[in-house]
Amino acid sequence: MSGLEEFKEELETCFGTSCGFCERGCPVYQDLKVKTLCMRGRNRTMLGLLQGKFEITPAVVQAAFECTLCGNCDRWCALKNTDHTQAFREYLLKHGVEPMKEHSSLALSLKNYGNPWFQPRSARNRWTKGLNIPKAAPAQQEVLFFAGCTSAVTKPLNRSLVATARLLQKAGVKFSTMGQDEPCCGSTLLRVGQTDAFNELSAANLKKFQALGIKKIVTACPGCYTTLKKSLEGAGSKIKVTHAAQEIAQLVKDGKIKVKKSTERMTYHDPCHLGRLGGVFDDPRTIVESVATLVEMPNNRYESRCCGAGAGLQTAFPKLSKNLAFKRTAEAKATGATTLVTSCPFCETQFRTIPGMKVVDLMELLLDSSQDIEKNNGQNKKAI
Ligand code: SF4
Ligand code: SF4
Questions:
Q1: Are domains 118-249 and 256-372 of this chain identical in fold?
Q2: CA gap 112, 268 in Å, rounded
Q3: Does the C-beta of 21 come closer than 6 Å to ligand 1?
Q4: Domain edges within the chain
């Protein structure tokens, strides 16, 4: 038993319960109020397909793909709802449903360029220019900084990578990158239901990491973080996977990165894959609180609302995706904060499309603050 069949009992449990608790935090349901687009309705659709009561129609395909896989429904329910939805997508593709054209182009780009954004492989390494970071080689560096496709090949998102690398270097952390040879983590494939291609890619990635003698992978992107962590642990690998926010927060706490605290009020948006799905809530807040006053949005931590960029929604359902970004930005503005801080390239891109709120990446924020303190120290020394 595999794929969607594996979850049949869970689907039956949902059908029997039908409590609807999952509706309250579902950003898609709250925006569209369509019953088949929240988990209760989606589970019922999947069960109907498995029981042979439903056929695959355009509405069924929409129910599978109009979801950000943000995991908010899992917060209110004992069932593994986001896993159901991923299996639902895989089921449809295996039953002859063509991938949505927006999603098939992501997979095509991945195949030809090693990233989902049609950027040449050489673009992956551009951000490292002038940083003097060694390239991973067997038995050289045990810590690998994993940039991730989206930030590596996209300006200005790659500024976050530069900031992270500089912060690690300032604190004396030794690390390497895979440069142009860094592979995609496969998150995109997984989220759009291309499970076989994802499994193939994951197995190849593990071999590459093992050949280099990597003991720890520090990811910049929350999507890479949950994807690599789950796939490496699932394969029984001992390679530890962390997110840069965890590493850098510890360096701040240890006093290895000195920062200057301002009186500015800032709010922090938990990216779904770092927060609710990755369980990393405190470390980014440690960083924000080291440089500013943190004011929370009412929906924070486990209850944070998705920015709308996840799981292919941004490419396949742009209007809905934008609405979700607008709503989340409105929550941020209502806190009275001057700045919305986040730590995910997808969230950052989303929020930058909504006017009226300054959006800052967590690592850039910290680097700027640590440079301010160095500038001040330099001026003080001159004065002495
Ligand atoms: S998915 Fe969970 S919370 Fe939603 S109706 Fe089913 S059992 Fe209830
Ligand atoms: S994963 Fe998020 S968007 Fe999808 S059904 Fe659950 S709460 Fe709604």
A1: yes
A2: 36
A3: yes
A4: 3-94, 118-249, 256-372
256-372 fold: Rossmann fold (3.40.50)
Q: What is the pTM of this model?
A: 0.92
Q: Of the bound ligands, which one is closest to the alpha carbon of residue 324? A: 2
Q: What is the pLDDT of residues 134-163, one digit of tens each?
A: 999 887 778 999 999 999 988 887 899 999
- State in Å: Cα 13 to ligand 1 middle: 8
Question: What's the CA gap between 307 and 330, in Å, rounded?
Answer: 11
For residue 43, the CA-to-ligand 1 centroid distance in Å is 8
Are residues 98 and 133 in contact, defined by beta-carbon separation less than 8 angstroms? no
Architecture of domain 118-249: 3-Layer(aba) Sandwich (3.40)
Helix, strand, or coil here: 166? helix
pLDDT at position 107: 78
Amino acid identity, position 130: G
The tokens describing 370, both together, are 């640590």
- CA dist 348 to 28, 39, 154, 159, 306, Å? 20, 27, 12, 12, 12
Q: Which ligand is nearest to the CA of 26?
A: 2
Q: Give the model confidence (pLDDT) of 86-124 as tens digits.
A: 999 999 999 988 767 777 777 788 888 989 888 999 899
